[in-house]
Structures are given as C-alpha cells and as structure tokens.
Amino acid sequence: xxxxxxxxxxxxxxxxxxxxxxxxxxxxxxxxxxxxxxxxxxxxxxxxxxxxxxxxxxxxxxxxxxxxxxxxxxxxxxxxxxxxxxxxxxxxxxxxxxxxxxxxxxxxxxxxxxx
Amino acid sequence: xxxxxxxxxxxxxxxxxxxxxxxxxxxxxxxxxxxxxxxxxxxxxxxxxxxxxxxxxxxxxxxxxxxxxxxxxxxxxxxxxxxxxxxxxxxxxxxxxxxxxxxxxxxxxxxxxxxx
Lengths: 115, 116
Known about the structure:
Mean pLDDT of chain B: 90
Oligomer: heterodimer
Number of strands of chain B: 12
Structural class of chain B: mainly beta
Order of helices and strands of chain B: EEEEEEEEEEEE
CATH topology of chain B: Immunoglobulin-like
Number of helices of chain B: 0
C-alpha cells in the first residue's frame, strides 16, 4: 500500500513565524500535492510538484512556498504565518507521466493553528 | 470550467437505513470520477473510482456508485449504513491535465451522521 506520511498531526505556531510542513511518500510517485481543507470549502490546491525541484502554483498559493529536493519529500513553507492560515493541511501523491486516471493517495493531515 | 457539486452539506440517516450521497460534475469529456471518505482527524481514503465501462462501480466498505452521463452525476450509495460510516465524503473529478500532471477537482464534501 502507498504510504504518505506527514510529519506532524497537530502544530501550534505564532503569527510571523516561519513554518515548515513535511510530507514523505514511499511509492516513488512523481506527483505530490499540498491542499488546505476548510469547512464548507472542500479541498483547495496550494501547490503541486511533478518532479524534483519542479513546482507549480495551485489555486491558492499566496503566502506559501514549497520545496522538493528529493523525489519522496515535499515540503510546504509558510514564510510568515498569519492567523488566516489556520487550517487542516493535506499532502497527497500520485503517479506522473500523464496518468490522469490515477487516484491521489493522502496523508493523515496536519492541523495547524496560528495564534 | 470543470467543477464538482455536492448539493448536501450534511445528511443524517439511521443505522441500517440506505444511503445516497449526490454528486454532479461539469466536464467536457468523459471524466474520471472518484469518491473519498474522511474519518474525523484523518486523511482521505479512496472508496471507489470510475474510468470507463460498467457504469455501476463497487468500492470498499460496501459502497457503490453509478455514473449517469445524461445527468452528469456520480451518486454514492450504500444499502445499509453502519455507525462507523459517519464521516465526510468527497466526490472528485480527474482527467484534468494540469501542466505536467493530473489535477483532481473536489466537491465541498457531505458530512454524514448516523443515528443509532
């Protein structure tokens, strides 16, 4: 089974801090994704990466950046955390190579609170 | 633009009753369709998927879904709900080429509560 592991289940940070959320997958997937999930809004794509060092903005990239130095690891960075970034963050991975019919595999999520 | 609509934000059913969760999509071609379930505090787990062929697909945990092209729908069903089915359910459409890879578009989710 595909395993997507997010480093923290719960995280509490302060406004203005630089925050790192880490995600690791063990299936050699090319594509990795970061979403945020808010009540009534479903999942919204922040960034995704289709290869090492490659990244693309999703629907709501403002206030975030990402890093993918190794194929299995995809990091989400909040450069200067703000209270409106309090949310549930979900990482996902899937095969690349134009496989549009592949489901995404999700981690358990990180619930981030910015005080 | 592609979109997914789940008209019901919250549904409550009695344990043992049947369940149908609605999903409508907007997509120009034959879509790839998915249903995911999210238990409290967890990530999303794939329940089932439709790509082509038989329009009635079976998934895990006793769920099934039917693709109806004429109605642009992909409703999720279960004949008898168990208390452990209480969760949030997301419908998603794939097949959307997004730069180098595929993108999923998610509905807003339907929260299911189960009465004893």
